[in-house]
Amino acid sequence: MQTPPRKRLELLSRIFVLLALVFVLSGWLLNTPPGLFGKLNAVGYAVCHQIPERSFPLGEGRHSPLCARCSGMYVGAVAGLAFQALTARKRSAMPPWYVIAPLALFVVAFGVDGVNSYLYLIKQASPGALASIPNLYIPNNTLRLLTGSGMGLAMAAGIFPAFNSTIWADAVEQPALPGLKAFGLLLGITLAADLLILTESPIVLYPMAFLTTAGVLLLLTMVYTMVWVMVMRQENAFRRLRELWLPLLAGFTIALLQIAVIDAIRFWGTGSWEPFSFPVRR
Description:
Helix 2 crosses helix 8, helix 5 (141-167) packs across helix 6 (180-198) and helix 7 crosses helix 8. With 282 residues, this protein is mainly alpha-helical. The protein has one domain (63-270). Helix content is 67%, strand content 4%. The longest helix is centred in the C-terminal third of the chain and has 30 residues, at 202-231.
């Protein structure tokens, strides 16, 4: 009895994804710095400059795997995704305009602070450069963390309903962030997390290191899971999370592959796993 083409494709895709995961994961684990914190740094190495002066100190000569801005971005993203998963489940509509408006302002603030901070970095690294372009203000890690968190919330507000509308057969056509009350509660939770981080207590910063690097993998996995589902023409074909194991595994594998490739390119270019180093102040 011949296997139907669809069943054969599903079987081949399972074998392909599992083999790819073993190959990519083992290769990445064997070629990145040893130890758990070494792996966290290797994830951050793929997405962040990791400049020590712009990262939070963990003690013992260590700094957070992501800079203050990236830490804020993934704290906001994880908070936003977790909040919507608990309160909105399979809701697939974008927020109303009066929630999108403040999120858009957060994105603008992220861009303004990022450009201002980058100009300040160039001026510090190369005295006399861009002297004709004034800085709006002296950048600092507090602003980087807060504007990063705002950007993370905006990312979560877009990715979560997009994921639901792509994946679930029984997606609910209602906003995942339905109004200012829910948005205000989420904003308060994120701000509280930021204030805890700004204490720079190791009790807070070490869990943050794990949370933010997990956030990198989570966001990339969600995006690539959607891509896999669309490529396999399985949109709106799932009703339970356990049915989604193969697309999620494929998404995670592609996410890890992206990190591994960027790690390899950066290491090839710099010859070191160390963060970028500039004569800068925080």
